[in-house]
């Protein structure tokens, strides 16, 4: 993993390299320990874990602390999913079709996935490989939900959050025949006060799909 510190003029310094696990797939910058400094959460695909590097505040980071996940994790979402004021991790795996929830303590560490009750680990309910994930309140109930891209099904799945760190099975939405959805982001693209979904199509179509939210 490389850090290039900005100069403030649009240029960047030389890269600073940090060791990660095998096949790092995804990275998110958040303050997971509440000290006002950005930390990094890295998904290590072939190592089947997520690594947390705590920020020191001067552009340096500690060595990663790893937490086991299901095999071949691809991406992570970081937010407070159980409403306790601490950032949690939701990790998507593309081997077991499972979603892992690792609840944060607020000190930069996370409870082990293997220690969770079984109802905090969810079958995605589909037979496909998930790739991308984004966070948003799609149903207007003030609870954080997840949207996950499913490559071979040409669909995205919306997992509604309950507010206690758990999620329901996905509602699937097509991204078009022959599409292969990969990256995903959310925003209110038509200014109606509801979060919409934008998905990149990794097929020969070379397109981007927008799904407008119709939830009342």
From TrEMBL:
Keywords, comma-separated and alphabetical: Signal
SUPFAM superfamilies named in the record: Integrin alpha N-terminal domain
InterPro entries: FG-GAP (IPR013517), Integrin_alpha_N (IPR028994)
Domain of life the protein comes from: Eukaryota
Signal peptide: none
Database matches in Pfam families: FG-GAP_3
Listed name of the protein: VCBS repeat-containing protein
Species of provenance: Adineta steineri
